[in-house]
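User: Here's a chain of 84 residues. Predict its fold as tokens.
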Amino acid sequence: MPKVQIKVDKPRRKLLSRGESKAKSSRVANVVAAVSPGKAGRKGKGRSFDSWSKADLLKRAREIGLKGRSAMNKTDLIKALRRR
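Assistant: Prediction complete.
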């Protein structure tokens, strides 16, 4: 197996301190080096929660086990889901 070259070590050490595996830490560090650090954690162009219906937000909140979701309005659901 070839030796992996770590391009940026700071994110790798931070992930290792959080308990992530060496392999995952190395992959993430190399992604950070390949793209600008501000864009490294972003995923594809998904819909923002603002465009979701309340029913969709409730369904997603149920999937992740958000407590108190039935008493929340749409704005509260969006805030709670973003915090997750």
